[in-house]
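Two proteins follow. First one:
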Amino acid sequence: MRTLATLCMLGLAFPASAQLKDPTSLEFQIPSAKAKLPFAKDQPIVFVTAQNMGEWNKLPQFWNPASEEVIDPTTGLKITRQIVKVKLPLGLTEAPKTPLENPMTVARWELGRRLYFDHALSSDGTISCASCHDPKRGFTDQSPVSIGILGGKGGMSAPTVMNSSFAFRQFWDGRAASLEEQAQGPPTNPIEMFAEKEGDAWHLLVLRIRKKEDYTPKFLEAFGTEPTRDAIAMAIAAYERTVFNGNSIHDRAELAMKFRVIEEEGTKFEIQPKDYAKVLKEAFAKKDVTALSALKLQDEKKLDEVAEQISQGRILFFGKARCNLCHVGQNFSDSQFHNIGVGVKDGKLTGGFLGRFGSQPIGHKDPTLVGATKTPGLRGLVSTAPYLHDGSEKTLEAVIDFYDRGGNAHEFLSPKMRDLQAEQAYLRSKQTGETYNGPAVKLFGADQTPIIPMALKLTPTEKAALVMFLRALEGEVDDLVKDVATPLPGKK
């Protein structure tokens, strides 16, 4: 690695006086090709999913050092360079999208992992990203609201970082368009990370990072610049883009089902209780504590009973319980925004929370999104309690009860939470004078809009089965991502 002194001699590092005279250099810098790792030594990270089953099966672990033959664009010569193939866990069938301006490389990822756990991101050195998004707590803090700098309390439950790379937008209200943009928010928040009385939060942060002796040479190699706001955000995003949760019991059962149907020469590709039973037996044989503890399954004699319950829960999830209206795809989220009645008291939103509507720019305000929040993914639920954006529900059972009653009625309740047919019947009765015999109606707003929450009418047995299916979505996160001290495979 080049030393900072050597880089200064080459004219590739910016003197501290220039940093202070030109604040722009703290925000971003034009990369220096001479400072950056040359193409032949800059290791790219390549994502491999189970969609490419042949290659996926050959990869023994999450992080797989490999090599590739490519044309060096700087010389036009064919070379062999080192790469890393990241094996996405089972169930994640699509790799996350990566901005062209922030390609995934080992150098950027290593910086991002270190920064994520570095308390220097906060102005008094007490808070890191991991403080509220702790890998040991499902990349959350398992609290209704987070505790930030100087004991300040936030207004939201910290969302998990797991699989956040698949989200269309970041934060509960979607105010950030990317992980890179999201990473820039907390350091400027006086409740989360910034406690200085004066000065630009990010400029002070960048100067703190630059004072750490080994950061600057690594930033120059990874980005061709000193530490800047731009580069720090990119590095953190590169790391967060690899925080995957998958390989749940449900994912394994789905794969087992496919092999079973092919072997039986069948045509009905649908998971059966015996598929869940098969992978549960394998989990017992391998002493898979994560999967079995998520299901509270300690006695192998109850294995078939639990398999049947998970299967019934899956049927309910995609049927009577209507969960898949919003929870779809590989991460069980549509990445859209819905107001399900969280935080409503006496028919009104509390605290002036406007949700997605509030974060939309002027000229693009959508009144149907007042109080709406992003649909969270459902992987890793066991480790991320409490639930909902305000952390108001402590258990999965309580969440199911919330949805079973149709959320909390109010003027902006999402149509997906409402009994629209009953509402139409009520409106028709008003026009025709006929008697309305449907569910109870509440009128809201200046227009006296009728709102009827959709009661699912789940039985206690159905609720228990649905919870068991959600527990079967509990997956794994690789140790390399969870612990900054874990060495990279093949790293010299």
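Second one, unrelated to the first:
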Amino acid sequence: MQVTVSQQNLKAAVGLTEKVVAKNTSLPILNNILIKTEGGMLRFSATNLEIGITTVIGVKIDEAGEITVPARIFNDFISNTSDEKITLTTKNNTLFIQTNHYKTHILGLDPKDFPIIPKIKNNPVAVVLARDIKNAFVSVLDSVALSDARPELAGVYLQAKNNNITVASTDSFRLTEVVIPAKTTENTIVILPRNTVAELIRVCGDMAGDIEIKYADNQIVFCNNDIELVSRVIDGNYPPYKNVIPEKSVSSVLIKKDDLEKNVRLAGLFSPGNSDIKIAAESEKITIIAKNPDKGEIETTAAGLVKGAGFTIGLNFHYILDGLKHIPSSDVILEYTGEGSPFVIKPSGMTGITYIVMPLRG
């Protein structure tokens, strides 16, 4: 192989694929990126056997070929090279790199040993804007369970149906659901691993316009013309989380998001070990109280439009802040649904985002 490529494009392609690579002492080939000429382009691929990613860039090809090279050292070298043009040449599983100011070579491995990354040739089950699906994944990531005791909860629920994509997550203490518009062709439900969602958030930042979502044989693909990410999905059925979302509320509060966030953050400074704060709503204000025998106590008030009866509820302040940071509206609606029942936070003036926190006992 002999190709000439711009440093900027090479750096972007290597940086994108290198993040998927994980250190693997038992299978050294998984530490490598596969570089291959294909269809007049240069293709870069990496996999950790759970997630695979491929991207292509335009190059000047003088000789076709392929090689795998260690991802970390290749990425570090390219990132620290400022010369505009780079020539890559391969011989005997060695990659020779030459620029105006640098000349080096990196020992690689036989590309025939590189794992096959699954290809899904099915028609897309959905087409969605990259920025929309990225923002949806960002909103639900905090609510994914960190424990693998229940594998379904350690992932993100995704449903493509009726020209919408719904993503949701819950760790049994809070729940987030986001609905975004999309073009869908069939009803598809999958559970995405947490690591896949985190990787998709990163990759979607490099995608513009639409993303196609394809699904077959417990594998899902998110792709456009330049980037393709494939992942396994989690076996099993996601719990019927919609049963937790209350259909009506006893009381509601319309409040400025910044006011609520500031006061919750201040109260959190004095919360006890379980991060408990009390929110009391009455008339045209809410009062937030926290007490800690080792630190002291605080009481803050903020203006809010209360509809229905007053209420008092104990909540984990971290969970409230996690929910607020993903709500784009300047005002939020707080819904009290009864003693011991879920507490709902929604944006005001828009639909598509629902965040629920379970109250603390006592």
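SUMMARY FIELD: Residues 7-18 form the longest helix (12 residues). Residues 244 and 355 are 11 Å apart (CA to CA).
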